[in-house]
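Translate sequence into structure tokens.
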Amino acid sequence: MNSDQIVAEIREANLSYLMLAQTLVRADREQALFRLGINEDTANLISQLTPAQIMKMAVGNTLLCRFRMDDDIVWNLLTSHGKGAANEGVSRLHASILMAGRHQEAA
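Result follows.
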């Protein structure tokens, strides 16, 4: 994959993310805040973006979304390294609880 392809993929991801974020914020604000890991101010801004503004933001070469899992515990829970399929649901639930706690701390 060359750099032009990478930039095109970033732009596509940005557009998809912004459209999803706006839909979530407009449909269920509280869920959007939790699922996207954003604050009220960001949610207000996203909900008011016009299609032209979304397109303008999306065409940049910087990825707008980011991974919120910034430690080994959450990554290991989500990927279930060394765990059986029976524990996968429990691991995902545990990861969700950890992420929810971090969302509360950030708010």
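Note: Residues 67-107 form one domain.
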